[in-house]
Amino acid sequence: MAPQKLKIGAAGLGRMGKRHAINFLNRSPRAELVAAFTPDPDELSWAKINLEPYGVTLYQDYDKMIQHPGIMAVVIGTATSVHAEEAIKAMEKNLHVLCEKPLSTSIDVCKEVVAEARKRPHLKVMCGFSRRFDESYRDAHAKMDQGLIGRPSIIRSQTCDKHDPSGFFVAYAAWSGGVFVDMSVHDIDLTLWFFGDDVTPKSISAHGITAVQPGLKKYNDFDNAVGIVEFYGGRIAYYYCSRMMAHGQEDTTEIIGTEGKLSINANPQQNLVNLYHPGGITREVPAHYYGRFEQAFVRESIEFTEACLDDKPLPLKLTNAVKAVEIGSLLQEALVSGRQIRFDETGKRIETAQL
Amino acid sequence: MAPQKLKIGAAGLGRMGKRHAINFLNRSPRAELVAAFTPDPDELSWAKINLEPYGVTLYQDYDKMIQHPGIMAVVIGTATSVHAEEAIKAMEKNLHVLCEKPLSTSIDVCKEVVAEARKRPHLKVMCGFSRRFDESYRDAHAKMDQGLIGRPSIIRSQTCDKHDPSGFFVAYAAWSGGVFVDMSVHDIDLTLWFFGDDVTPKSISAHGITAVQPGLKKYNDFDNAVGIVEFYGGRIAYYYCSRMMAHGQEDTTEIIGTEGKLSINANPQQNLVNLYHPGGITREVPAHYYGRFEQAFVRESIEFTEACLDDKPLPLKLTNAVKAVEIGSLLQEALVSGRQIRFDETGKRIETAQL
Amino acid sequence: MAPQKLKIGAAGLGRMGKRHAINFLNRSPRAELVAAFTPDPDELSWAKINLEPYGVTLYQDYDKMIQHPGIMAVVIGTATSVHAEEAIKAMEKNLHVLCEKPLSTSIDVCKEVVAEARKRPHLKVMCGFSRRFDESYRDAHAKMDQGLIGRPSIIRSQTCDKHDPSGFFVAYAAWSGGVFVDMSVHDIDLTLWFFGDDVTPKSISAHGITAVQPGLKKYNDFDNAVGIVEFYGGRIAYYYCSRMMAHGQEDTTEIIGTEGKLSINANPQQNLVNLYHPGGITREVPAHYYGRFEQAFVRESIEFTEACLDDKPLPLKLTNAVKAVEIGSLLQEALVSGRQIRFDETGKRIETAQL
Amino acid sequence: MAPQKLKIGAAGLGRMGKRHAINFLNRSPRAELVAAFTPDPDELSWAKINLEPYGVTLYQDYDKMIQHPGIMAVVIGTATSVHAEEAIKAMEKNLHVLCEKPLSTSIDVCKEVVAEARKRPHLKVMCGFSRRFDESYRDAHAKMDQGLIGRPSIIRSQTCDKHDPSGFFVAYAAWSGGVFVDMSVHDIDLTLWFFGDDVTPKSISAHGITAVQPGLKKYNDFDNAVGIVEFYGGRIAYYYCSRMMAHGQEDTTEIIGTEGKLSINANPQQNLVNLYHPGGITREVPAHYYGRFEQAFVRESIEFTEACLDDKPLPLKLTNAVKAVEIGSLLQEALVSGRQIRFDETGKRIETAQL
């Protein structure tokens, strides 16, 4: 008898939604993509060609999809604004949930998802932070755990996108939560992974500019921002996020310890080719984060599937996803207000008036 | 109706055979692994756990496997000595064939496979040279085709394995065909790809040593060898193969043209991590060729499947596989005899007496 | 007739003083080291062997040295606390001055030196910021000037020393002015060079920890610090300074423009050697800043000499040296106080009460 | 009293001659350039501006220069054809000699120089192989001596020049001795250094093409050549020399041992700058060997001076210079004839007839 497979439905078939659907359809051996939902006609057309022939039932109504016969889990790749609602509905139907980050740009809404998940501890509910599944970050984390760098004390981490002159990111800024929530949330998640998720911020400072996308200003957003989060216990993380890279995606992290340092992706590269030409020696760089992290997304599908089927622990806690968004929101607030934000040792915010 | 899948059987479940089987089972969406053959009890035990539960019928008799109902193709990963016989039997049953390299260490036997394939032009018969499916080699080839390096004139290519002190390679030398046939055949295949498969050797020189595996001498083999193949038309390829690397697998290629150069894997690396420590900055290196080429093998499975189902051309000709082994054998002869071998412009060997 | 040489005296023969003396003695063809001053007996012993035999007159009194017959210039490498006084005295004797950085850790004292220099515009008075003379920084600056990166908008720059467990830096903290003044002043100087020296800070934030040198706390100093300086006009510089590197000196700079990026020393290295060993591939890193910048110091001597003899402009303004220390001091204040500092567009500080 | 300096004369003020003259004039503190000789009017004009004002007496007659009062040594940077004669004349005048490589392209003439030097063991006579003075090669050699790579067994070394379309190298081929003598002699010298100068060749093979300089054919020379030298005792060196590089000078060496590998300049670079642009990440490469080896030439001047003044041993033997040219000539012969050359264990050549 063939081993049971995880019957999963995919909600949302936009850029990332398509990739999740394909990864569960084809690249996660123990999963079976049984259903997909999208309200969008173009996405539906794509699905008729790329999913339906392989046994995937298509839905234009999310509520119906989560009642698909035998469905055990959903992967949510819709717009951020409906992530939480869809996640909660799925849990209510007793489905495991893999949700694209962030759960929500609202902390309160995030917490509702967590609360719902707490009620159903038998369900696997994960917010997808892809770098947790990347081989290089995992190797770095293992090396840190082996003590190779002593006590990790400083993290430098950046998420830098290739400049997209189309105006997409200006429109997107209306509801993205801001660059620190949209982009640096990955770096903050890494911070919680490498420093431990019990770290408490002591103070947060951030500064930004709009160098190439002046339209961002009307949404109080920036195309380049730098932030520092100081934690109690003698640790600092500092972040750079940018949408201005000429050369491609450049997501670099350094974990600096008392006895050594680890870098991940200090030398971005598309592949192992170098071209030697009259102007020097050149290597290319991935144009997008999927070019950098494709294998991590595949691994995410595979491990989520295993966790659901075998009742194994997930590699990241749902509460971390909330904490990462929370710190991202505070960075964004510091950025927009131009004011440092401070906290006492219990994590309670110290109002400026008290300073 | 679900699209047709390629029903394939896997022959041989040794180290590479297992990987092929898993790649067709799980990582080639349009293939369906329906059968597997191995005469080996240990491999059979592995298959009962890893293949049988997923609908793969197991055989201990190759002839029976190729009569499995509905089977359309075989992937051959058995010992080199039976590759050719199994390939021919499969073709006789009208099956497509993906055969691990080499078809045979005997040129005559290789040619029998080619002759059989010529009789059945509707069949896809491919010898798996994995580097042809590697993203970096493909990118380099595309850049060459764009004219970025002018006319390719010199190729330097090496296949260097991590030193394996177990004695495995001494035993293996008894039937491997020698280092140039076993290892450099990949570099020779790349030469045919980058220079064109119509190149004609003009002279072949080779020299080798046994530095760490003295037991190789009794098989007339070497653990380090360097060879030069000069081609008519002003082109040279030179090769280094070694089983002595301390640090891991290091397969590097340079294509040097009249107006530029391409390098592939000039800086071997396990992943994107660097460790900074009191002794300097260190990156790790893959221990084995599968660590370097895993994604290429997956792509090979996927593209072989597509070629069979859609009757698309294969990315490499079967005759190239023979030519690569032929040049490898000549290098090996030059290595063992210590004599240069020369050819006239028609490819006919010039006997030493004539020199 | 031999061309005139610059007769120069060296004040201070400590670690850097010795190097300056030797560079003017041996590596600056148009300079002639005629005198050297040190009050320290050990340094004097060194000078009797290494300077006196080559025609250098030794002094234990600075005032006497600057009256040495024919002396035209001094290079000041004494303790920071006497830099300014010695520089002013030299100018009063009509001598050109090359002074180690900083002129002083006090802005007021720095300004006295500048005021004195303004009175004597025929004198060359330079504060030695060695990176201005480094080939790589110069190449990067030239590439920026060619417009290769568009408008420079973000600078990331770090000065990171190899960890010195001797306790030297704890003692040194008593009078160094703090890590931002002592270390990051180089990065700030680069900022003025790449952004233009007319930039006006808008806000300054900084955070630090003492991870390996707890003794620093009593001097209100830190062994790791991160700071952000936002400038009016849409530019940000962010700095990291550390005395905790396990692997060696790592001074890295990135200049990020609207159309490209330049990095300097993204891959620190001692030389061009890589060692391939069972643990991977390792390169070494310079242990000290002189290992990284030796050739820049030589070039500084040569160009200072040329500027004096040929009345050519110096490559950096004395006022920049003051501005760099000023920004460094503000970063240090923000670091120690834990409070952001803000400025209006005229550069006037906005008091917290006004916020 | 000032310590004695090495009074030295420079013969030849062409491209390299000028550099030697300047290095002894300005960058070798214990040397004093007292004289210079050139028969060339342009070079003489240069010398009147750049040497004479600094106390250097100019000569148009070599014989007169070596009688300059007090002269103790000569540095010979004239055309190769007169190296040997000038070296011998200098020795006859009891002068130390630093001669550009090669002593001669004729082995017999080389041996005359050695014979003359043997008669005068108190003289320092050195042929300048600059890589022996390069920090990276020295570091690699020290690491090998520490046993970090086990027994060195394979050397790969290449000397590759940037393509010069001016036709200079075609004219030069008339008397250069051929590419293996002119270029690979450096790699052969490194081989003698890393393998030991007592190694005995067992066989020599070489192949070449003329890809970009067809005019070379009339001088029996090539613009790309690959050669293998197998040594008795289980060691192989293989070389690549080229004048076709689009990107610049690329001189790379690998020393492969039984327990590790060392590479020198595996990643050629002009400096520490990387430019990130829409096409990727680019670094520049030195255009000429002096860009790569300038500091090595300076160190050569300094150490030659020290050896003369302090009667210290030179870092390389004169006989090695002959042996390197000898092996280079044999490679060139194998290249031109297309025939392998073999030797018995005593180093005696085995005639083809005997094969």
UniProtKB/TrEMBL annotation, chains A, B, C, D:
It comes from Cryphonectria parasitica (strain ATCC 38755 / EP155). GO terms for cellular component: cytoplasm. Belongs to the Gfo/Idh/MocA family. Residues 137-262 form the GFO/IDH/MocA-like oxidoreductase domain. Gene3D superfamilies: Dihydrodipicolinate Reductase, domain 2, NAD(P)-binding Rossmann-like Domain. GO terms for biological process: NADPH regeneration. PANTHER family: BINDING ROSSMANN FOLD OXIDOREDUCTASE, PUTATIVE (AFU_ORTHOLOGUE AFUA_6G09900)-RELATED (PTHR42840:SF11), NAD(P)-BINDING ROSSMANN-FOLD SUPERFAMILY PROTEIN-RELATED (PTHR42840). Residues 7-126 form the Gfo/Idh/MocA-like oxidoreductase N-terminal domain. One of its GO terms (molecular function) is nucleotide binding. This is NAD(P)-binding protein. InterPro entries: Gfo/Idh/MocA-like_OxRdtase_N, GFO_IDH_MocA-like_dom, NAD(P)-bd_dom_sf.
